[in-house]
């Protein structure tokens, strides 16, 4: 799997990017042999179309790739990636037709089209390579592709090989690569260091729960990322049905996305003091499992009534967020595969986020389009605050009624961040059907948009 651009001096075939409505005009300027060949091939300039153009010797001398229509491109992203697999193996350079404003997105899509998860079966096929288009920062785009591949690999790995210990190993590998500091609090030490809800959720598993704490950078504003690392979620004693448990290897998708974002920040050398906190647990069933109607006391001192052990992600995040808030950084951001309600609200393709920080919300929305990383703002709707207040304890981890589940979960988390600007992402981290540059499986949702918003929000 090669997620890098070809060297600029590599011998390359010219590749013409053709919009559907521009094909006739382009063909009018070509010799009859080219016109006849393209027309006979059935190439129409649609997204997913590609055709090789032979030279006099019979070998290829150029290629065309479809760019569709503006209306069709608005329905998706990474339009060129749809046709990359139909090109002959070799190296290409964009010769014409690609709008400068879309060059970075399409270049990233080309690289991501080469991603394959091959840990257990198969090999990644050799894909056509691209010389980075003019005015595209090739090194930056390669960083984005590598971070996305890291996130996908972590989410795609089954829980048998991606438990709390293996998630810790992935974080340690990232820390070693970028000379970051890392500390891990494991097992009973969680109680000794006042992380009672992380311990409660993870104690039923033979794979010990832990809190991963990574730091990088010594100058600049302080940014803390918190990622939900539930490596498998049975639902605990409120056991999930089989149909809902099938994808629970991805319940550490928040941690995977946070690690991908951290990799971008470190590889690009952003001038920030970065902290990454990942509560890594497995929500299992045993005689030691936490129970419905238990009342847990959090690190912050707030008590939580457990009305569903399957609403465990907010519990482990709460302790980590309380720790993050104690340091009063300049910004805290959490990412989690937290609620099915978010999927009902916006589907699998959008990353819903919550924040009271207007500059961040505006910057994120503006950045998401150029980053090809769609997000959608949801409200911290304060009239719903009483839904998370059960009376017998300060907070309810699973309010009854089934409505506004993503909002009430976000309101729950906000109770643990009182000193710092905060944003929360309730992501899916999974692509349910293959799309250009986005095969079925684990996926990053939000990190590229966040990366684009950080300079404005943190004053970088």
Structure write-up:
With about 450 residues, this protein is α/β, with parallel strands linked by helices. The protein folds into two domains: about 15-135, Leucine Aminopeptidase, subunit E, domain 1 (3-Layer(aba) Sandwich), CATH 3.40.220; about 140-460, 3-Layer(aba) Sandwich (Aminopeptidase), CATH 3.40.630. About 35% of the residues lie in helices and about 20% in strands. The chain is built from 16 helices and 19 strands. The strands form four sheets. Strands 6, 7, 8, 9, 10, 13, 14, 15 and 17 form a nine-stranded mixed sheet that branches. It has a five-stranded mixed sheet with strand order 2-3-1-4-5, with helices on both faces. Strands 11-12-16 form a three-stranded mixed sheet, with helices on one face. A hairpin with a 5-residue loop joins strand 11 (about 295) and strand 12 (about 305). Helix 9 (about 195-200) packs antiparallel against helix 12 (about 315-325). It is elongated and about 80 Å long. The chain starts with 12 loop residues before the first strand and ends with a helix. The model has no long low-confidence stretch (mean pLDDT about 95). It comes from Alloyangia pacifica. Belongs to the peptidase M17 family.
